[in-house]
Amino acid sequence: MSIYKKVLGKQFYNLHPMLQKRYEMMGEQTFKARGVMKTIKGGPRILLPIMKLGIRRKLLFPEQGEEIPFTIVNTPREQGHQIHWERAFLFSNQTRYFNALMSLDSRRQVIEDYLGEPPLLYSDLVFEVVDGALTIKSSKQHLVLGKIEVPLPKWFQGQATVTEQFNDRTKQFEISVRVRNSIIGQLFAYEGAFTSDELT
Description:
The chain is mainly beta. It is 12% helix and 52% strand.
């Protein structure tokens, strides 16, 4: 059973059937998909040095644009107890990444999300099903400094909201990601659609 099915419990069966297939198979085999990001947006220019630093960790990047091709590869590790996320954005002159490693804390019923390679940020993720779509929101966050994790005050956090759904008309998965800070406002956002040959 995948970590996502475990964390959602009975809610899992309220997901659109295609989302059920996608999030159940991730505990057993690699999921690959490709699509196009309708938009990729950043935040204020003051964040540019942080975004450039994020390139080294496959976490953040300064590029923005429209109609950007991208790929997703979800790979199970540790017998499915961990899921590696590789999200690659294929800009015209370079490829940028937004990678993470997720696992389940069954005691607290949250997904633990280590962002970047090697990880730079940690976040608890809370999963919920709304009208057949999967909604993911970040909660407690830490700065990761090697083996040390430093809790971040709320005013310093980037609060993420992710919505993934399946469009029956276009036969595509649709994804929307928004990361905001309570003081600065939007830090990072993208939305687009993708398909997978493994799910028909």
